[in-house]
């Protein structure tokens, strides 16, 4: 009975702490975001989309089971709570779905892909792209790995899809080296076919790599939490597309917006076509996993005719969650010790009092 009285409150507080850290902080973070609709309200003709990048689901080689469990739980909670609150019509994943797909054999690759489907696919339309961790960098892509990805995720080198009348071009960044390899040659043929068709509407381009830039020094701040890294210098064809491939992509597709990931850093950059007055914004998204950054983000995108409106929705901070657990656990531990000592003292007082009553009754008898 004493143990129940001592532990009842600490157990309830522990359950409350876990609920706050594993559910409420996600709900609170995503409730503070909204789609960037014109005049504060989206019309039924607008397309509302989520863009997510670099989930990096851990595999057998580099992932400890506890780390894997924590990261997957964080992304699972983030994905389903955010989609429940905002109800996007489509969710785009910009590659690096898996961390070790490039090393996986047939059955293992399939198990990684199925894990992604289990975590992120349901009633919502999900569109996926390949990243270098899924199939390897350009020089290391094996035909079998590419075919496994194509089979599991139904994604080719260059794909074109229509959603609510909006055109999206989905690009395998590793096939844009322009060195005449088989994959690059096939991708160039597909791009030329699109150019010859001369579609009237400008597409939204989605890929894993960003367009060419030397550093993030060319970027604008995308939100108040965005710290631009001016020091890191990017390498062509490793961190970004090459300058030549970038220019060819822009000239061929004339996009109205471009989205990428890969660098695990945010960026918003304005591009202007040299021969016309047309311009567009390129957006680079950081990783969705706490493993690759303390405050991941989702892009909330509204396509309204020729306008592509973008806002960021930040996930909760992992460091804040850890701090809450440490201080909350410490306070619950102190409270438990206090209640135990208090309960033990009361028990001893009652024991002494009962003993005195017993002796007094014995003497009077």
From TrEMBL:
Its main location: membrane. Keywords: Hydrolase, Manganese, Membrane, Metal-binding, Transmembrane, Transmembrane helix. One of its GO terms (molecular function) is metal ion binding. Belongs to the metallophosphoesterase superfamily. MPPE1 family. It comes from Caenorhabditis tropicalis. It is a multi-pass membrane protein. InterPro entries: Calcineurin-like_PHP, Metallo-depent_PP-like, PGAP5/Cdc1/Ted1. It is found in: Membrane. Its cofactor is Mn(2+). This is Metallophosphoesterase 1 homolog. Residues 50-265 form the Calcineurin-like phosphoesterase domain. GO terms for cellular component: membrane. SUPFAM superfamilies: Metallo-dependent phosphatases. GO terms for biological process: GPI anchor biosynthetic process. It holds the Pfam family Metallophos. The chain crosses the membrane at residues 322-341.
